[in-house]
Design brief:
By secondary structure, the chain is mainly beta. It folds into four domains: about 5-65, Nucleic acid-binding proteins (OB fold (Dihydrolipoamide Acetyltransferase, E2P)), CATH 2.40.50; about 75-130, OB fold (Dihydrolipoamide Acetyltransferase, E2P) (Beta Barrel); about 135-205, OB fold (Dihydrolipoamide Acetyltransferase, E2P) (Beta Barrel), CATH 2.40.50; about 210-275, Arc Repressor Mutant, subunit A (Orthogonal Bundle), CATH 1.10.10. Helices cover about 15% and strands about 40% of the residues. The chain has three helices and 18 strands. The chain has a five-stranded antiparallel sheet, with no helix packed on it. A hairpin with a 5-residue loop joins strand 14 (about 190-195) and strand 15. Helix 1 (about 210-225) crosses helix 3. The mean pLDDT is about 90.
């Protein structure tokens, strides 16, 4: 019998507090299904579909209730409590699911809704993990470039950007040159599909069309200039990497913002620097 999975088991014994189930009519390995969950009409030899987990005393137990997550899958669960060594998640069963601190990729707060997987730890207990989501998401979404979608943030990467699960199931990414600093793990955002890769994964953007976004970018650049004391030590001729790192903008978006501010005579360009006027 396998923890964390659904399976068909046979009723082999009835007791006052429930029934015992096994894989075979005379199987020695048995698990209890509590009386309050035993369906009417069950007799010795009846077959039941149940889910196996461990109770509060770490004893294997069966349930006919449907958990929100099974081993090898990913699902969105709500954080019920955060403690020093991890967090407890609501997964639809009487016992909350434990998320160890070492399996957390971000600080959590009660009522956060996060994508997690289910695994069996070294002590044969079912636990949640915020890691490994990327490989469990689907890549056959119905979306095309230009579509507006909703995605949940589940991971950040310095090299690749922010990773999201569109509709909590499809693999997607916001490239690293976009400003995702205000996003949180578990947050759902509205984004536009910019491309569908050959492997089916989606590239997204939080940005509006260029002519709309330009005003926002120009204002952001002014605020950045203020934080630099009115002088930015590079211009639009800097490398895309420098521009993305310092401003959170692509080189093209940065050039558009600089052009707008220069035309409005709010900045000057000289000696490889941008100065606020």
């Amino acid at each position: 019998m396998k923890l964390g999975e659904y399976q068909e088991l046979i009723c082999v014994k009835k007791v006052n507090f429930g029934i015992y189930l096994s894989e075979e009519p005379n199987g020695r390995e048995r698990v209890l299904l509590p009386a309050k969950q035993v369906p009417e009409g069950v007799t010795i030899g009846s077959s039941l579909k149940v889910f196996l987990y461990k109770d509060s005393q770490d004893r294997p137990i069966a349930t006919t209730r449907e958990p929100k997550l099974t081993v090898g899958k990913a699902a969105v669960l709500r954080v019920k409590e955060v403690i020093k060594i991890g967090a407890f998640l609501d997964w639809g069963l009487e016992k909350d699911l434990f998320l160890p601190y070492k399996e957390m990729t971000a600080r959590l707060r009660p009522d956060d809704e996060i994508l997690v997987t289910l695994y069996i730890d070294k002590s044969s207990r079912l636990c949640a993990s915020m890691k490994g989501i990327y490989h469990l998401l689907e890549t056959d979404s119905p979306y095309q470039a230009g579509d507006q979608v909703t995605g949940r943030v589940y991971e950040f990467s310095d090299n690749f950007g922010a990773f999201l699960a569109v509709d909590d199931r499809y693999s997607a990414r916001i490239p690293r040159y976009e400003d995702t600093g205000s996003l949180r793990i578990g947050e759902c955002v509205s984004a536009k599909v910019t491309s569908v890769k050959e492997d089916g994964k989606l590239d997204l953007t939080l940005r509006e069309k260029a002519y709309i976004q330009m005003d926002t970018d120009a204002q952001k650049l002014l605020e950045l200039l203020d934080s630099y004391g009115g002088v930015l030590p590079f211009t639009e001729k800097a490398s895309p990497e420098v521009i993305a790192r310092e401003t959170g903008l692509s080189k093209n978006a940065f050039k558009r913002a600089v052009g707008r501010l220069y035309k409005e005579r709010k900045i000057s360009l000289a000696d490889g620097k941008i100065r606020r006027l």
